[in-house]
Amino acid sequence: MQLQWWIAYVTTILILMSTPGPSQILMLSNSMAHGYRKSLATMAGDLTANLLQMGVAAAGLVTLIQASYSFFRIVKWAGVTYLVYMGIRLFLNSQPVTNSHQPGETGRSGQALYWQGFFTSATNPKAIIFFAALFPQFLVPQQPMAEQFIILSTTYLLIDGCLLLIYGGFARLLSGFFRKQGAIRLNRVSGSLLIVAAITLGLKDIDSGAG
């Protein structure tokens, strides 16, 4: 892949990611509620789902996805419902945030946060169509397809991962501020962010981007 095509691709991705999606908001919430270190599991879940979505898009299964879109709408709204439930549960939680290892780190397992990140990203079926529409714009037919796909996919995952790290780090700063005002307020802010993530995921029928 030529350098100018790669730069154009990176620029396009950065523009498309200029506004936070449900995965970024989820990362923000989990980093505030459960600690930055544990929120990395959320990032891993999101990137895993993105990688699978890219693979489905590359395999040419977009037509099948579109034909079964009613099913995927059900899957998506199940994800929305799950995030709303978790947000309300955290919002109403009056227990103080524990502080055994890091500020803001709770007993919620990294595995649970991983699957939360995975399902939040995976329940966005529009992402598969998004990747299927994005990648061909930067593929050169005369060059090996597999190599180009690896470059495009790796680049996307690196950019997405870096942005999630930034959101997680920013949340760590915010959590210190809200913790001074009480653990209940921190829970309410984190829970509200989860509900915002759910709303953002629900709007993905309109915004066909990934993330």
* Helix share bin: over 70%
Hey, roughly how much beta strand do the residues contain? under 5%
Beta-strand segment tally? 0
Compute the gyration radius: what is it?
A: 18 Å
* First and last CA, distance: 24 Å
> How confident overall, as mean pLDDT?
77
Number of helices: 9
**SSE-based structural type:** mainly alpha
Inertia-based shape: globular
The residue ranges in which pLDDT falls below 50 over 5 or more consecutive positions are 96-106
**SSE arrangement, N to C:** HHHHHHHHH
In this structure, how is the largest beta sheet organized? none
Describe the structure.
The protein is mainly alpha-helical. The protein has a domain at 23-136 and 181-211. Helix content is 74%, strand content 0%. It is built from nine helices and no strands. The longest helix has 36 residues, at 145-180. Residues 96-106 have low confidence and may be disordered.
